[in-house]
Amino acid sequence: MLKFYYGVATCSLASHIALEEAGADYEAIRVDIRGGQQQSPEYLALNPKGRVPTLVTDRGVLSETPAILAYIAQTHRAAELAPIDDPFAFGELQAFNSYLCSTVHVGHAHKMRGGRWADDPAAREAMTAKVTQNMSDYFGIIESRMFRGPWVMGERYSVGDPYLFTVSNWLEGDGVDIRKFPRVADHFERMKARPAVAKVLDVVSAKS
Amino acid sequence: MLKFYYGVATCSLASHIALEEAGADYEAIRVDIRGGQQQSPEYLALNPKGRVPTLVTDRGVLSETPAILAYIAQTHRAAELAPIDDPFAFGELQAFNSYLCSTVHVGHAHKMRGGRWADDPAAREAMTAKVTQNMSDYFGIIESRMFRGPWVMGERYSVGDPYLFTVSNWLEGDGVDIRKFPRVADHFERMKARPAVAKVLDVVSAKS
Q1: Is there a contact between B98 and A101 if contact means CB atoms under 8 Å apart?
Q2: Are the C-beta atoms of residues B42 and B17 closer than 8 Å to each other?
Q3: Most exposed residue of A50, A133, B62, B176, measured as fewest CB within 10 angstroms of its CB?
Q4: If you average pLDDT over every residue of chain B, what do you get?
Q5: Do A141 and B48 touch (CB under 8 A)?
Q6: Is the complex ipTM higher than 0.90?
């Protein structure tokens, strides 16, 4: 059985939903991010980066959201969560996920996690000040150039959808009105209505 | 034929080497990054993010290094540049590439590209000041926990190797002595000796 380490209000939500959509046999284990459990020796032994998500398989450990999403899709083919056998379509899906990981998530992280990139408190304030504009710019590109509809990649739901849902969920806290992006906003509402999403949100929001 | 848009001294070097290692039929087109060509209407029509690399295929456009690397491997199977049919091994390779993309590259970018995340010049100086330590920390994890040897994933050369080579190449400019990481340093030298790498370095360093 897979062991899935997640944190509340983190990007691990994307892989968590994907596991549920895939019908995977997994145990979800909460990591106390606020309490710093991700920096404990036990956790660092699993994932030296001290981040979530971490997926423990019978072969070993995987980390990084885009890698875990592709792995879930590839090992649960009946769920058809990625066009694995079509290199170009799979590449487009991976490009979307990589953009969320390396640009959109990074942009968002400059609000609360600026200490990763600067020690000076004033610098961290300057980073926070730019988050609303950056997130708005990133979602402008998603809305107008990347999102196909009704799902991220078009007619077929894929692992890109829970990932977009996860980062869309950060917009309000980042001072961006999701209604500026009507197709993303519509996607966000339809995602919330999916049973797998509702189930995972219940688990993640439950008191530990 | 593939059209590959690259920039000098950018992460596009990884995909460029991978195309060469794969024996791909491609045309390499230089984008004048210093001159801002990546923000021209023509280029933004291809890649609305205004970044390199961009790969134009007969099906459409791909961006994002991890996605392009997997695509090259998947469409040039004879070159055996990724364990596509082994979801766990492929997941490990993708996790490695995603770490380089979303953590290591991002850490490096805070030296010259801090304006992406803060407008205040003092904040950008504070970001630059932390780059040496961050890059050193990231490579400490690569050296001790991620790199297997002799290649990134072990006995088999993969698309993770040109990507590691590309970011290792930034260490000197970031104030990090690569010799602190002997296995990475040895990999860097062996990579330079590969004909495909030497050929691409010649193309990229040629005056336009």
Answers
A1: yes
A2: no
A3: A133
A4: 97
A5: yes
A6: yes
- Domain borders along chain A are 2-80+197-205, 87-194
- pLDDT tens digits, one per residue of A54-74: 999 999 999 999 999 999 999
Q: Is residue A195 classed exposed, middle or buried when 0-12, 13-18 and 19+ CB atoms within 10 A define those classes?
A: exposed
Tell me the chain B residues in contact with residue A63 when contact means C-beta distances shorter than 8 Å: 95, 99
Distance CA B58, CA A59 (A): 37
Adjacent-strand bridge partners of A30 = A6
Contact A88 B62 (CB under 8 A): yes
Closest listed residue to residue A147, CA positions, set A100, A208, A114, A205: A100
- Alpha carbons A167 and A135: distance in angstroms, whole number: 10
Q: Which of A59, A95, A141 sits opposite B88 (nearest CB)?
A: A59
Judge whether residue A208 has pLDDT over 70. no
A:B CB pairs within 8 Å: 152
pTM of the predicted structure, to 2 decimals: 0.98
Measure CA A117 to chain center.
21
Q: Give the mean pLDDT of A166-194.
A: 98
Q: pLDDT tens, A17-52?
A: 999 999 999 999 999 999 999 999 999 999 999 999
Chain B residues near residue A107 by CB distance under 8 angstroms? 117
**Beta strands in B60-208, from DSSP E residues, in sequence order:** 61-63
Q: pLDDT by residue (tens digit) across B121-175? A: 999 999 999 999 999 999 999 999 999 999 999 999 999 999 999 999 999 999 9
Task: Report which DSSP code applies to B38.
Answer: G
Q: Is the Cβ–Cβ distance between B18 and B53 less than 8 Å?
A: no
Homologous superfamily (CATH) for A2-80+197-205: Glutaredoxin (3.40.30.10)
Q: How far is A136 from chain B (nearest CA, A)?
A: 13
Interface test with B, best of A117, A137, A143 (most B CBs within 10 A): A117
Pick from A100, A113, A1: nearest CA to B134: A113
Kindly state the tokens that stand for A115: 């200490």
CB A128 within 8 A of CB A118: no
Tokens 């988050």, residue? A131
Instruction: Determine how β-strand B54-56 pairs with β-strand A2-6.
Output: unpaired
Q: What DSSP designation does B104 have? A: I
Question: CA dist B61 to A97, B46, B179, Å?
Answer: 15, 7, 38
CATH number of B87-194: 1.20.1050.10
Non-local (6+) Cβ contacts of B142 within 8 A are: B99, B104, B164, B181, B184
